[in-house]
Amino acid sequence: PSIVGSAVAVALFAGIIACLQAGRRIGARAIGKRGAGRQPSTESLETAIFALLGLLIAFTFSGALTRFDVRRSQAVDEANAIGTAHMRVALLPESAQPRVRELLRQYVDARIDTYGKLPDLGAARDALARSQSLQNDLWARAIDATRLPTSGLDTKIVFLPALNQMFDLAATRLAATQIHPPLVVYGMLVALALAAALLAGYRSAADQAPSWLHEIGFGAIVACTLYVILDMEYPRLGFIRIDAIDQLLINARAAMT
Predict the structure, then answer these.
(1) pLDDT score, position 192
(2) What pLDDT, on the 0 to 100 scale, is given for residue 34?
(3) CA distances (Å), 253 to each of 113, 237, 256, in order?
(4) Is 207 helix (H, G, I), strand (E, B) or coil?
(5) Counting C-beta atoms within 10 Å of the first and last residue's C-beta, which end of the chain has fewer, N or C?
(6) What average pLDDT score do residues 46-75 get?
(7) Among candidates 252, 101, 67, which has minimal Cα distance to 173?
(8) pLDDT at position 139
(9) For the purposes of burial, counting CB atoms within 10 Å of the CB of 52, is it exposed (0-12), middle (13-18) or buried (19 or more)?
(10) Are the CB atoms for 172 and 33 separated by under 8 Å?
(11) How far is it, in rounded angstroms, from Cα 13 to Cα 201?
(12) Rounded CA separation 111/54 (Å)
């Protein structure tokens, strides 16, 4: 997505500049046929399209930023859940604790690798599959431990929900990586930006010379905004990253003795 986002941003910038020039040429031909004083007014149409473009950019940017913050919060929640589950292993019968602790350490290692291997998607999927397999092993071992004669009822009530919450948060984080706006939203954003550029170029046809500063500025601002939106939607693969939040999982793993 970083490469794709860069390519989309560059293509959008080039498209905006091309539409500005195309609109200017269309406007110049219309002026040559009708005269400068008989041009149809497009001000209301421009206002509507620019307003719609601004709203779409604002909502898309806001949604991407919200999802970015949610992903960071979920990482904090998972690290806390892992720490809680690790502490509650002490409630299990002593004979069952070593194996459960070992499986939990392996599970956290796999969770760290799931995100640490990115942008290598193949390695990340392998680490995810390993963590999901360890979930089954860890749950089965925990159930066996709570059924031992020396295990009290409070152990089952306290430890199993902590383990279940840890697994649920892992699933929630996985789902969060797949939640993005429909592609049609980005298509509309690009289409509106190009339409706005075309109308702006048409309106500027009466000017003696194009204002390259304004044209390049408009194209660069819209293209950079779209790039930032895409980067926030995929915070593991671009320049805007949440890798630093993984230190919480690493710290949780370091605390497991």
Answers:
(1) 94
(2) 64
(3) 12, 24, 5
(4) coil
(5) C
(6) 93
(7) 67
(8) 94
(9) middle
(10) no
(11) 14
(12) 39
What secondary structure does DSSP assign to 97-154, as a single string? HHHHHHHHHHHHHHHHHHHHTTT-HHHHHHHHHHHHHHHHHHHHHHHHHHTSTT--HH
Sign of the alpha-carbon dihedral angle for 196, 201, 205, 206: positive
In sequence order, which residues have a C-beta less than 8 Å from that of residue 143 and are 6 or more positions away? 160
36 — pLDDT class (breaks 50, 70, 90): low
**Amino acid found at 29:** R
Q: Residue 37 pLDDT more than 70? A: no
Interatomic CA distance for residues 120 and 11, integer angstroms: 26
Helices (H), 147-176: 153-176
The answer to whether 200 and 23 are in contact (CB under 8 A) is yes
* Spatial contact of 77 and 122, defined as CB atoms under 8 Å apart: no
CB 76 within 8 A of CB 207: no
User: Which token pair is 69?
Assistant: 């913050």
DSSP 42: -
